[in-house]
Amino acid sequence: MDPSDLKKAEAGVNRRLVLIALALAFASSMAVMLVVLRLMYTGELYFAFLVWNLFLAWLPFLFAMVVYGGGERPLVLGVMGPLWLLFLPNALYLVTDLIHLYPWDNVPFWYDAIMLFTFALIGLMLGLMSLYLVHAVVARRWGARVGWSFVLATSALSGLGVYIGRFLRWNSWDMFTNPLRVLADIAVSLLHPELFLKTMVTTGLLTAVFILAYVVLFMTPRLALNE
Description:
Elements lengths: L2 H40 L6 H21 L4 H14 L1 H8 L12 H34 L1 H23 L7 H4 L1 H13 L1 H26 L9
Helix pairs in contact: 1-2, 1-5, 2-3, 2-4, 2-5, 4-5, 4-6, 5-6, 5-9, 6-9, 8-9
């Protein structure tokens, strides 16, 4: 490819990335506004945790943009790659916040349904787009087969990560502050006969949802950022 054509292609990719980031930022601001309006109407802070969870869901997307922009530089992959993988479950975690949907006396049920679904959808999109960016880097460096193997493995680890956060109540940063206890709890969930089935079923369902949604995204030609 001619150098000028390559620069034009890279500029086009960067523009699309910026547009996607802006669209997700706008959607996120609308989601936060839904929480603020509910707070103003009820005076209750119950759903304020959604804003924090949304912030955490943005971190893997931002890390992925750094990885994608850094190309194949070992330092970028070695530092930002693990951080991205560690925080990726936070994006999918927002989907599980739907468990907080139940009737309130002072708030219409449909309002909370729309609010929680909006956060879940944005979280899922942030996770999918971040995986898309890192997948592109892996596929360029090691080939398509390794790239898709990476997607499958990452999706499974993300599913397990969501289980760890939702049921074991650990956070991503606990791997830095209390790694031994986190690993011990994971080991118990995998080795204990009564917990193993719950762990595997929950992880498997979340993994399947993430993979199926990702395949749909990947098959959408207009989002082919690496073409």
